[in-house]
Amino acid sequence: MNNRNLSRGLFLIAISLAFGLQSLRYPIGDFSRAGPGLFPALVSFLLFLIGLATVIRSRFVERVHLDLNFKNIAIIIGSLCGFAVISMVVNMIAGIVFMVFFSTLAGTSYSWWRNVKIAAGLVTMALVLQKLLGLNLPLY
Hints:
single chain; mainly alpha; about 70% helix
């Protein structure tokens, strides 16, 4: 399969089915009294529609060759694993900073100032989620 658009659509459909089928294990409820499975079911249904539209669109547009850069895939997986390990060992703020600075090595350009701004934005969002929504995030 060398068509990047077709691959992207099939991947979105697979992800939506994986989460959508798992959401059916929980009570759905209705819109006036939503159950715990309603939100993931709705999001996965919308993702399924986007994937289906991408697959259909791939039949009508010019094929784009699918290039897999295994070095970049390894960098992104390493940054996610490093985020998880550093968040458990040190704290989540250090994990976020590591993830941002390490994952941008996979890009075509590297800017430490852009990385600082992205990391500050993600740390701010984590603090907002912790303080305003009361999520139990290990930030300190």
